[in-house]
Specification:
Helix content: 55-70%
Number of strands: 4
Largest sheet: 2 strands, antiparallel
Strand order of the largest sheet: 1-3
Number of domains: 1
CATH topology: Sodium/glucose cotransporter
Mean pLDDT: 85
Distance between the termini: 65 Å
CATH class: Mainly Alpha
Radius of gyration: 25 Å
CATH architecture: Up-down Bundle
Length: about 600
């Protein structure tokens, strides 16, 4: 069967499955729309959480970033996984015990302030909108290649599918759809990895294959990769080359950002008991580990395959490069998307691929008459999607990867959009604008809010500010600087009051947004210029992707300082904080209905 037809069948079949589940599990009440009626089994919730978590950044972009940087980008793995441990131990069970539907609702009740709740809504929307841009980019990249349509058309199709099952099903429909999407994405990720690991090392388990002997050279795979990269003037794959302080801050930003992501936190509101929240986090880590243990192997093996493809005659020889006329089909196909670009700079008919910034390699290239690296663009987001084609795997594997990439992007997009919808309908409309709205009115408000959020996400996804994983990393920084500190202080520090919480959230969020904007060109003030996004211009060498950890510190300090010089929280609120931390029972924490008085 033709590969393209097979892709249409597999992708179409998975879309039909998602829509069918949404019809079966459609939400009829606000309880079902926001929290699936708190009836989700912890194993099922763990799998749905894993799908919600493993976004386009994890499936599509992460292995590509590891492939072209190496060890230093393992911080993505450490930060994202470590954040789940923080979430399981420090936040999930306590927030579940509180018994609310949304993160801003907890903030409003704990800090006895409608203003604090609205600031929480603001933080949630900024985080979730930033995050969802990366998912929509992933949808566009996947569609543009596998369905052979412009990325804009792919965005519209993906948005339409999400619109149907998210608006109709709410949290109930999204939960069971995400279970199906997890099964699709983990299968799509691991099967190509197994094939490629067998080809390169003879080991069918990719994480073990990463440390096995390379079949073509007789040396360890990573040693072989280091060798070929050194021959081309690139940095060693397995050594540390970046600023250690910045790497630690980046990892910390990802960790606490993970624990503060609203769309992940609300997943723990769906289980029946407090203990189930912990079990859900544990199962989510198990399901996530299946992909995260495989990703480093995928990155390393893909990088080696790319180099071997571009240098079929051997590295270091003038005539060892690939001829333009001999480009494999996968290169020709991806060139059509504009995400892979070559330029014959010296008109010799061959593709020279090397690090022209390395002085020794540049001198060698000059002696050969080369005129620069002729692989002028290789979008990191295409590597996982192109892997099956690079390794000449069967057409059904290519189709499966297409479905997996879309499942990863759509599952997380749905969770983010639900978080945005809940914040607008439950916290803004019901909580502030119209407290007497009927349940059906609130349900319609939630669905309309989600539809508008989908439209906004699609618009922003047309012009994303970076690779999927880079955009997502910015969202983590915003979550680290705004949501995580206020949740931690709300649970563990009775003395933090409403004024302190508001001041902390606003200062942490503002500091992080301004810092990121200065380097990413998003802040246009009269008489100012964008700062170059390079280490020599960063404040104390701190990358915009790492600044979330500093923003969190700003949040903590401001909240504590303001709370110390203002009135202590009412006694009933302090008792509420104590009741949240009692590790027994499954019902909501006891608190007076009159607690919110601002």
């Amino acid at each position: 069967m033709d590969t393209q037809i097979l892709i249409y069948i597999v992708v179409g079949g998975t879309f039909a499955l998602y829509i069918g589940i949404a019809i079966w599990a459609r939400a009829g009440t606000t309880g079902e729309f926001y929290a699936a009626n708190r009836g989700v089994n912890p194993v099922v919730n763990g799998m749905a959480t894993a799908a919600d978590w493993m976004s386009a950044a994890s499936f599509i972009s992460m292995a590509g970033l590891i492939a072209f940087v190496g060890y230093d980008n393992s911080s993505f793995l450490m930060g994202w996984t470590g954040g789940y441990v923080l979430l399981a131990m420090l936040l999930a069970p306590y927030l579940r015990k509180f018994g609310k539907y949304t993160v801003p609702e907890f903030i409003g009740d704990r800090f006895y302030s409608q203003a604090a709740r609205l600031v929480g809504v603001l933080c949630l929307i900024v985080i979730s909108v930033t995050y969802v841009i990366g998912q929509m980019r992933g949808v566009g990249v996947t569609f543009s290649r596998f369905l052979e349509v412009p990325s804009e058309v792919g965005l519209y199709v993906g948005a339409g599918v999400v619109f149907f099952y998210a608006v109709l099903g709410g949290m109930k429909g999204i939960t069971y759809t995400q279970v199906a999407q997890y099964c699709v994405l983990i299968t799509a990720y691991t099967i190509p990895a197994i094939f490629i690991s067998l080809q390169l090392t003879g080991n069918a388990i990719p994480p073990l294959g990463l440390f096995s002997e390379h079949a073509g050279s007789g040396v360890a795979l990573l040693e072989r990769l280091n060798q070929v990269l050194a021959d081309l003037g690139f940095n060693s794959y397995t050594e540390h080359h970046t600023n250690t302080f910045n790497m630690v801050l980046f990892t910390l930003s990802l960790m606490i950002g993970t624990a503060g992501l609203p769309h992940v936190i609300i997943r723990f509101f769906t289980v029946p008991r407090v203990a189930d929240a912990r079990w859900s986090a544990g199962w989510a880590l198990v399901f996530i580990a299946l992909l995260y243990l495989t990703a480093p192997a995928v990155g390393a093996m893909a990088r080696l395959n790319v180099v071997d493809t571009l240098w079929p005659g051997g590295i270091g020889a003038e005539d060892g490069a690939l001829a333009f006329e001999d480009k494999p089909d996968w290169m020709v196909t991806w060139e059509q998307t504009g995400l892979l670009v070559f330029e014959d700079k010296n008109n010799d008919g061959f593709i020279q691929y090397y690090n022209e910034g390395n002085e020794e390699m540049a001198a060698t290239a000059e002696g050969f008459g080369w005129a620069g690296n002729e692989l002028v663009r290789l979008d990191r987001d295409i590597l996982v999607l192109a892997n099956p084609e690079i390794a000449n795997l069967p057409a059904w594997v290519i189709a499966l990867v297409a479905a997996g990439g879309l499942a990863a992007a759509l599952s997380t997009a749905a969770g983010l959009l639900l978080a945005i919808s809940g914040a607008i309908s439950h916290d803004l409309i019901k909580g502030a604008i119209n407290p007497n709205i009927s349940e059906q009115g609130e349900l319609w408000a939630a669905r309309i809010s989600m539809a508008l959020a989908i439209a906004l996400a699609t618009y922003l996804g047309l012009n994303p500010p970076g690779f999927a994983a880079q955009v997502v990393a910015l969202a983590f920084g915003l979550a680290a600087a705004s949501i995580f500190p206020v949740l931690m202080m709300g649970i563990f520090f009775k003395r933090i009051n409403d004024i302190g919480a508001i001041a902390g959230m606003l200062s942490g969020l503002a500091f992080t947004i301004v810092y990121i904007s200065l380097y990413k060109g998003w802040l246009f003030l009269p008489g100012t210029n964008q700062f170059p996004d390079t280490p020599e211009y960063w404040l104390f060498g701190i990358s915009p992707l790492s600044i979330g950890a500093v923003g969190a510190l700003v949040n903590f300090i401001v909240a504590y300082a303001v709370s110390r010089v203002t009135a202590a929280p009412p006694q009933e609120i302090q008792e509420l904080v104590e009741s949240i931390r009692v590790p027994r029972g499954s019902g909501p924490a006891a608190h007076p209905s009159a607690a919110i008085h601002h």
